[in-house]
Amino acid sequence: MRKVFWGLIFTILALFIIIPIGIISTRTLNSLSSLEILSVLIYPFVSSALASWIVSHLYHTKQSKSASDANEELSSKIHSLSKGRVRCIGTKFNVPNGGEYWSDLFKNARSRFYLIGNTNKSWISRSEEQSDQFSKAIVRLLKSGGEVLIVSNDDIFTINQTKEFIEKRILPSMTRRPEKEQFDRNFSYLTISKSNYSCVVSDDRMVLLPVMNAAEFRDESMVLDTTKYENGEIFKNYIGDIDRLVSKYATVVY
Predict the structure, then answer these.
(1) How far is CA 169 from the centre of its chain?
(2) Which of 30, 108, 209, 249 could tie 198 with a disulfide, CB 3.0–4.6 Å?
(3) pTM above 0.90, yes or no
């Protein structure tokens, strides 16, 4: 395209220069007729206008093609972004920003927080600071009408540890009647003998840990991070699975 463009430009310029010179050099000015003199005078303007039109046409054609290619590339990128995405970001204890990654899940929750795990000790008893932050986030969420679900294994030690967390850190902040009603309505603690995965749901964000079969390697389970907007169908399927877990297979403690 570029070679054709410049070829036409040089051809027009050559004609613009050669033809008038050729006419004038072969004949004397006095021997030229009025029509020929007029042709020689008008020719540069006609050639210039023709050259301008050709250049303009080629330029707009090229611009239109470039714009079309850019739109096609943009559409392709948008289509690619709209496809379902699940990010593998490490293992349980090897995620970006360490503990802040997990803390942000409950700190940023506004409408719901689901925790489906094994012992959940990293959440409720890892440290005083962690337990305090987690319980305050739960209280805040419940008081604002949000939903909280905690699911653990059915080991008696895990159950007692979780109940102690609830009774010492959450219930004392939910003493008024409306608050008690919100707790009864929106808070659930359940147990299950076995889950195929661990999961955290924070509003429309979901973090999944497909649990390894060997108990001693559970901490090496990969961490998958996605959202309702990136992977709507998968998000919906797992929310449905959690609902079935709650309604059919789990034992209610609170």
Answers:
(1) 35
(2) 209
(3) no
- Residue pLDDT tens, the chain, 254 long: 555 555 555 555 555 555 555 555 555 555 556 655 555 556 565 666 666 666 666 666 666 666 555 556 554 554 445 456 778 888 877 888 777 889 999 999 999 999 999 889 889 987 888 899 999 999 999 999 999 999 999 999 999 999 999 999 999 998 888 888 889 999 999 998 888 899 999 999 999 998 777 777 777 888 899 999 988 898 999 999 999 988 887 777 87
Buried b (16+ CB within 10 A) or exposed e, 130-165: bbeebbebbbebbbeebbbbbbbbeeeebbebbeeb
Contact 203, 105 (CB under 8 A): no
- The answer to whether the CB of 177 falls within 8 A of the CB of 133 is no
CA 242/CA 246 separation, integer angstroms: 6
